Amino acid sequence: MHPTAAVAKRRPGATLALVATVALAGCGGSAASAGTSIALDGSSTVAPFSEAVAEEYRMEAPGTAVSVGTSGTGGGFEKLCRGEIDVAGASRPIAEEERDACEAAGLGVVELAVGLDGLAVVTSTDTAFVDCLTLDQLASIFQEGGATRWDQVDSDLPAEPLAVFAPGTDSGTYDFFVEEVLGTPGEAGSLAARTDHTASEDDNTLVQGLAGEFGSWGFIGLAYLRENAERLRAIEVAGADGVCVPPTPETVADDSYPLSRPLFLYATDAALARPEVADLLHFALAVAPELIGEVGYIPAPPERYGASRATLEEAAA
């Protein structure tokens, strides 16, 4: 089941409650005019939230067409800086070179935090011999020339083939994992990532591959693990303290899980000059604390939402 299926389970009257929340946040009536359209793209991790926001907003502003695509975080930033879309979802902060590309096109970038996520390390349910991996062991799998059998990761594990599945290189999930586990590309001490693995920008495709192969290994957003708990098995991750921690909403929220990350929406100042885009983002921030949880992620701390609202107010003024 796709994480956005949770939206269909919304209790009666919840949409009215969300719209009331928007009104209390200071953006009660929709500023969008009839016949307008807004394009969102970017991270497949953020897409379930973007799709849920779009679904709710269509009821708030039925004259506005809202589309949601998934080109990956990097692909979303490229489209945003070319002016091809209005809003980009991202599962990592924008990189300096990506921000520079926007500025070279005369576009300023506005960052809005919408929630938190944990990057889950997973295998198939029948791969029962591995329960926890350290960050160094994760690196031994995903670095260039990495392990092809499980006993190469840990001599106590069986000599079973290790099949690696991972997001494509345009994915923010890929970028986050590489930076956290292998080091920032180009910096001293960082490791190159392997390329001899099954890659896809679509998390659902990765889930199918991981679930269907004994000895599989990969990493996906926490929401996709939670929606496929009967098909996938989480591998706990041990940080520098050596404590094995499972990927759960609680461990992500308290930052004890080593692979926790923020989720964002980005817009350019040119896009925010359109009232309907600013209105949609006001709406997204107002409903995020409830809606982000309904699609499988974790709400950001209240102060993060407050800071994002202040940023949006200033940028859209």
Give me the CATH fold name of the largest domain. Answer: D-Maltodextrin-Binding Protein, domain 2
> What is the overall number of helices?
13
- Total number of distinct structural domains: 2
- CATH class of the largest domain, named Alpha Beta
Provide the low-confidence segments as ranges.
Answer: 1-34
The main pleated sheet reads as: 11 strands, mixed
- C-alpha Rg, in Å? 20 Å
Q: CATH superfamily of the largest domain, called what?
A: Periplasmic binding protein-like II
Cα separation of the termini? 40 Å
Whole-number mean pLDDT: 88
What's the helix-strand series? HHEHEHEHEEHEHEHEHEEHEHHH
Strand proportion, as a percent range, falls in: 15-25%
Number of strands: 11
What would you call the shape? globular
Class computed from helices, strands and strand pairing: alpha/beta
- The level of helicity is 40-55%
Would you write up a description of this structure?
The protein is an alpha/beta fold and 317 residues long. It folds into two domains: 5-116 and 262-316, 3-Layer(aba) Sandwich (D-Maltodextrin-Binding Protein, domain 2); 118-260, Periplasmic binding protein-like II (D-Maltodextrin-Binding Protein, domain 2). Helices cover 40% and strands 21% of the residues. It has 13 helices and eleven strands. It has helices at residues 5-8, 14-24, 47-60, 72-81, 96-104, 135-142, 172-182, 203-212, 222-227, 249-253, 269-272, 275-294, 302-316, and strands spanning 36-42, 64-68, 87-90, 109-124, 132-134, 163-167, 198-200, 216-221, 232-238, 244-245, 260-268. The longest helix has 20 residues, at 275-294. Residues 1-34 have low confidence and may be disordered.
